[in-house]
Amino acid sequence: MKITQHAILNNEEKEITTERVLEEMKNGPSEVVDLTGSDDDYAPPPPKKQKTIMDLKPPGKPAAKKKMNSNTNATLYVIALTWPSASESVALQSYLQKFQQGVDSVSKGIREHCFQRVETRHMSIDQVRLTPAQADALSYEGIAAPATVTFGSLQVNGNYAGMKLDDASTAAVMGMVEAMGAQHPLTAKNGVVAKKAHVSLLRRRMIKEPTKKAFEAGGTAVGDMPVGAVEGGLRVVIKKLGETLWSDARELF
Fold first, then answer.
1. Looking at the structure, do residues 113 and 170 belong to the same domain, yes or no?
2. What's the CA gap between 116 and 203, in Å, rounded?
3. Do residues 129 and 189 share a domain?
4. Residues in CB range of 187: below 8 A, 6 or more apart
5. Superkingdom of the source (predicted)?
């Protein structure tokens, strides 16, 4: 009689016959056979996870590591000579009022859009890229702003209107700036550093409406009036360009 059993060999079910058992008792087993196993005990190994397109790396060279840059957080700061409007002389206040009236005679909207706001009039000294920590650490020793500055003339064209200092005030401001540069090199291509000491009154500020006629009307309105002066309260400040209010600028001296 042929006796048949089943065994699990290398994770495969094998048929075991009486003849095969007798042969292996005589010659020795050719394979290790587990006669005690059953289908209930057998658990096949889990299938290998198939790679998907999400697992594939794009061809080409691996991305280069970014180098650390100490100036990553650097931004533009403006250093400027400024003053409170209360320090503007009566003559300067009358001059500015007359100038605004001239601009308004052509377009009040242009004046409102382009005119430099009260408490923001200033004289740019330098623009420099600094980190917040560098800006906070910037300081000067032994330098003072001029006690007064006097304006000598008005400069007007189709895109700009501003007041220029008279010769004596220009010399005083330039002396201050040279002392600043001796302590911390200045970099600006415009403003006082470039010997263009001026205070902007009107700028186009990306307005679409033509401005030349209105700007020139302001110049015509003031004619030969004395421009006036700033009498005290002058200080040099630093602030983020375009972000920080002038009232929140940090005073350097």
1. yes
2. 8
3. yes
4. 126, 127, 128, 193
5. Eukaryota
